[in-house]
């Protein structure tokens, strides 16, 4: 089995990875600093579950290295996410159980931001709240389009 | 007949979207938004066409239709139009009144500034959009 290099990300590398997300575009320098401080690095072996369907969401995850499969039911892969993609934000907002399993497809490194940290940032930074609404709205549209076609 | 300003503010204070605002803030919102009435059967937003606005239902009901199929109804306290404004896309559904409708209307270009000025409204909207996404996902699977 292949493992990722054990060298942890520096704060600058974390900030750079976070700043690339549209979700965090245009947020205040203060919010970005707090975000970097609370984002924790986690590693998962191939096949390991990152979140499980039915669990209440613990946070938002940003993929730094590797890839993950979003799996509904026993083995229905609905999406594969790559570095720069993120998941878990819906459960952060509504605190409802996760609607899918997310499983590492290979050795994978993520940045995890706990729900309460992200919610507190959303409450204090309107730009972040607005980005979050836009991101969820785009997914509502996409779900509607899939339904139609 | 239009409501008095006092009645309007009372009504708005009772809507979930504005529930976290102080009375003076609700009064400011009532000034900022335009009160409008529509008869039964009137189409307010048209799927795929430009022309947008943000609407909060004060009284009445609308049907939401995609490609002619009704997918839901919205009533007092519900809102519509924000998705296309925030995404910069034409409306994704037809919105048609099923009975006499009273709404508060805000021009599309004013919505982002409005939400930034009233963070509690933005948080309520965020939760509502999250709920919509949950429902859309459930519907699909």
Low-confidence stretches of chain B: none
Topology pattern of chain A, helix = H, strand = E: HHEEEEEEHEEHH
Number of domains of chain B: 1
The CATH first-level class of chain B comes to Mainly Beta
Q: Class by helix and strand content of chain A?
A: alpha+beta
Q: Please report the two chains with the greatest interface, counting residues with C-beta closer than 8 angstroms to the partner's C-beta.
A: A-B, 26 and 29 residues
Largest sheet of chain B: 4 strands, antiparallel
Give the fraction of residues assigned to helices of chain B: 25-40%
Main β-sheet description of chain A: 4 strands, antiparallel
Query: What topology, given as strand order, has the largest sheet of chain A?
Result: 1-8-3-6
Q: What is the level-2 CATH architecture name of chain B? A: Sandwich
In total, how many domains does the architecture of chain A comprise? 1
Please state the CA-atom Rg of chain B, rounded to the nearest Å. Answer: 15 Å
Structure annotation, total helices of chain A: 5
* CATH H-level superfamily of chain B: Jelly Rolls
Characterize the overall form of chain B: globular
Number of H/I helices of chain B: 5
Approximate helicity band of chain A: 25-40%
């Amino acid at each position: 089995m292949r493992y990722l290099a054990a060298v942890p990300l520096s704060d600058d590398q974390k900030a750079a990875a976070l700043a690339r997300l549209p979700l965090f575009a245009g947020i205040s320098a203060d919010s970005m600093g707090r975000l970097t401080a609370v984002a924790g690095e986690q590693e998962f072996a191939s096949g390991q579950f990152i979140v499980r369907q039915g669990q209440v969401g613990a946070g938002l995850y940003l993929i730094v290295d590797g890839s993950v499969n979003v799996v509904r039911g026993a083995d229905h892969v609905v999406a594969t996410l790559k570095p720069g993609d993120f998941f878990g934000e819906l459960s952060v907002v509504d605190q409802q159980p996760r609607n899918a399993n997310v499983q590492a497809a290979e050795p994978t490194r993520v940045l995890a931001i706990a729900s309460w940290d992200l919610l507190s940032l959303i409450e204090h930074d309107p730009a972040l709240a607005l980005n979050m609404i836009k991101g969820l709205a785009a997914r509502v549209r996409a779900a509607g389009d899939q339904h139609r076609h | 007949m239009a409501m008095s300003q006092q009645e309007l503010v009372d009504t708005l204070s009772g809507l979930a979207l504005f529930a976290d605002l102080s009375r003076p803030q609700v009064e400011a919102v009532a000034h900022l938004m335009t009160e409008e009435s529509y008869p039964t059967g009137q189409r307010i937003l048209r799927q795929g066409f430009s022309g947008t606005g943000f609407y909060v239902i004060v009284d009445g009901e609308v049907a939401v239709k995609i490609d002619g199929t009704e997918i839901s109804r919205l009533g007092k306290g519900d809102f519509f139009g924000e998705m296309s404004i925030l995404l910069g896309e034409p409306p994704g559904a037809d919105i048609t009144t099923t009975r006499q409708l009273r709404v508060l209307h805000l021009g599309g270009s004013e919505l982002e500034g409005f939400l930034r000025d009233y963070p509690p409204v933005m948080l309520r909207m965020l939760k509502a959009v999250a709920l919509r996404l949950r429902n859309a996902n459930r519907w699909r699977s």
